[in-house]
Please model this.
Amino acid sequence: MNQSAQPLVVRSDRDGITTLALNRPEALNALSPSLFEELQSHLTHIANTPEETGVVILTGNGRSFSAGNDLKAIEKGEKAATPYQQAETLDFIERMPQPVIASVRGHCYTGALELAIACDLLICSEDARFCDTHGKWGMVPTWGMTNRLPERVGPLAARDLMYSGRVVAGTEAEQIGLANRCVPDTDLDTSAHEWAESIVANSWHTLREEKKQMRLLAGMNRDDGIKWAREHGPGAAPDMLERIRSAFQR
Model:
């Protein structure tokens, strides 16, 4: 964990929504090993206290989500706490029970793009700029980019983005399916929170089972997946009848 006075990831909680903000604005929230260590710690705590948080928003303080890997840290030889810490943190985002929304403004480059597409949903501002610069720096993706980006935008668009290293603006990100929504710059924080509010108002039991099943069933063929959901689902939420009665009383 970072020992400096300034946390590298800032957590705030409101009405079942937890916001995690990358907090190195002076470095465009570059992804250092220490930042990942703090992020992993927060995510683990959230996953282990599911009664407190229904939805997570992951964003960045300042003018960028993140410029990507901390190249200065790489040059200095800084190492993660474990060999695959960064990749395992992204895997954990996919496995943790709560849905995670990436809220992106400004730069979202390379490792930051990998982090954003590990989230369940993505909202961006019009000034967002997405780019995969692995090729520019002679790096090879190891955090899941070559799986997750084709899954998100399709193989042809993924090849274009990875091979060319071109920059994609927020409006195009929405058009190609990289982002669910693109909003004006000034509306991003409000829109992300309103979206999270609409999600967290639903049954947390249902949300978590849907997230789990989509991940699990992606590894099965279609018929087996349909059969598994029918035979192994946990059933309705404990408050299902209460929710139905409440709807009729309005």
